[in-house]
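Design request, tokens follow.
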């Protein structure tokens, strides 16, 4: 009923013949957007976002004559906008929006018509052309239809086309948004030294996630300039700075609030702007598992369950022991602590890392150790992967600084893919945010490692003393030294020059030979 009344009122006012759409900051319902700044981000087919956005604007249109302020044409305006974005797939999306406004307090009532009315309805498409690492590039094309109330600075006589390019850079927890393009329309001459014609728009924004996926702070600079007098001071050039806070209490809801302040005297810029909005999005549902069939049969009484955790003995720690080696890893007594959402190691964890360094430097058999960073599932996959990688790298630098040779360690981020504990309670999530030390190469007793000579720390060029533990070599023997008993083996004869020769054994006694008898004369 209210909408029908507004349309009838708008139709009656169209006959007045002159108007223009002066709005500078328009709500956007795209994924990852900021007020007035679009993005090329999309999801699977059927994903939608719809909401209502309202803003209060003070002095968006002021009459100037000979650089003198002749009073506000529109002193105060309250605008509400309904909008929806529907993803057609990972590369395209469609959208629709319809504004309505009420305005009052004009100091030039002859230049202001209706105090309430519709704005121009807008329909459009977005496209995602490229995604490469943290970069996303796309484009947009929108058509504003002349449904707005004329002579109220809410709508225009002919259709307008909005065409532009979109860019998005994810440097979690920072994000950068770029939205540039043009507005093409039939020129509107207000006959007040102000021609509304084709325009160039450039909007730049940045966001910082205070709480991943939940709370972020954003800022943006919105600007436009008429192509008939580009970048000239005057009514055709407008710019405004905005700041906003977005809160996602659940995956389906997003609250948004912020303020703005005009930086130029162009049309549509505000003396002050405040806005608030609510966006609802579809939450993808996981396919439920088939319901199992339950059959009741008589069986023997079930055995008493055994608590596996009771069978696993927790490591015993001696006084002052902060870490120890267990087969293929080094376990630590207390987890490494970091500042919230950063890779900055807290001071209380430095002694543990120095202890780990001493273990590595004291065991030459550790050929190579990998530092693994792990995260909980609270943030997005990309964010968790990057944060876990940065934290593993921070530990890597600490161990190098503590004297571990750079050839013996490396690091990698595992994100959230290998949780230590299943569960969504804080205790489970905290146990999944961890750093592990995995030994991936253990040297044999007869294997001697080769380490390169490194005298400087790679990231700052400072002098470094990297330890190179080696196995104890067999004692070197000088064969020319006869006093070195280790030179001999049991099977080797001893040198007779140093020891008495053994007396020869007596020969066995032989029988005396018979006494020869004198020969008798032959007969």
């Amino acid at each position: 009923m209210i909408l029908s009344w507004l349309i009838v009122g708008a139709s009656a006012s169209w006959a007045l013949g002159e108007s223009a759409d002066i709005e500078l900051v328009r709500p956007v319902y795209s994924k990852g957007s900021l007020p007035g700044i679009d993005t090329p981000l999309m999801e699977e087919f059927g994903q939608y976002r719809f909401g209502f956005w309202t803003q209060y604007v003070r002095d968006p249109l002021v009459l100037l004559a000979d650089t003198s302020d002749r009073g506000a044409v529109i002193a105060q305006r309250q605008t509400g906008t309904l909008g929806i974005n529907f993803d057609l797939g990972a590369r395209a999306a469609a959208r629709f929006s319809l504004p309505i406004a009420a305005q009052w307090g004009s100091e030039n009532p002859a230049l202001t018509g209706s105090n309430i009315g519709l704005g121009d309805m807008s329909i459009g498409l977005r496209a995602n052309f490229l995604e490469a690492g943290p970069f996303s590039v796309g484009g947009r094309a929108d058509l504003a239809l002349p449904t707005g109330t004329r002579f109220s600075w809410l709508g225009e006589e002919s259709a307008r086309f909005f065409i532009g390019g979109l860019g998005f850079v994810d440097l979690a927890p920072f994000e950068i948004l770029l939205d540039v393009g043009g507005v093409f329309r039939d020129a509107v001459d207000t006959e007040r030294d102000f021609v509304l014609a084709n325009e160039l728009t450039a909007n730049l924004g940045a966001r910082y996630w205070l709480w991943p996926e939940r709370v972020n702070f954003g800022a943006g600079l919105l600007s436009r300039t008429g192509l008939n007098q580009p970048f000239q001071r005057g009514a055709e050039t407008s710019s405004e700075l905005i700041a906003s806070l977005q809160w996602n209490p659940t995956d389906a809801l997003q609250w948004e609030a912020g303020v703005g302040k005009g930086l130029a005297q162009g049309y549509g810029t505000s003396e002050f702007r405040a806005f608030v909005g609510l966006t609802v999005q579809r939450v993808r549902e996981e396919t439920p598992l088939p319901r199992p069939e339950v059959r009741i049969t008589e069986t023997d009484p079930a055995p008493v369950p055994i608590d596996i955790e009771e069978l696993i003995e927790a490591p015993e720690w001696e006084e002052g022991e902060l870490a120890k080696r267990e087969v293929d890893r080094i376990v630590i007594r207390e987890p490494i602590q970091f500042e919230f959402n950063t890779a900055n190691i807290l001071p209380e964890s430095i002694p543990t890392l120095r202890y780990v360094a001493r273990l590595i430097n004291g065991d030459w058999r550790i050929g190579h150790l990998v530092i693994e960073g792990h995260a909980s599932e609270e943030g997005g996959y990309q964010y968790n992967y990057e944060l876990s990688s940065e934290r593993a790298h921070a530990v890597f630098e600490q161990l190098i600084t503590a004297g571990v040779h750079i050839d013996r360690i490396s690091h990698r981020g595992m994100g959230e893919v290998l949780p230590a504990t299943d569960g969504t309670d804080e205790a489970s999530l905290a146990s999944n945010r961890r750093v592990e030390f995995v030994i991936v190469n253990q040297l044999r007793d007869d294997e001697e490692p080769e380490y390169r000579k490194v005298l400087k720390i790679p990231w700052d060029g400072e002098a470094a003393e990297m330890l190179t533990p080696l196995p104890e070599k067999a004692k070197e023997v000088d064969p020319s030294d006869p006093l070195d008993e280790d030179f001999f083996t049991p099977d080797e004869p001893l040198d007779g020059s140093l020891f008495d020769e053994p007396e020869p054994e007596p020969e066995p006694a032989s029988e005396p030979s018979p006494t020869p008898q004198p020969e008798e004369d032959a007969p």
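Comment from the thread starter after seeing the answer: thanks! Helices lie at 2-14, 308-311, 350-361, 381-401, 426-432.
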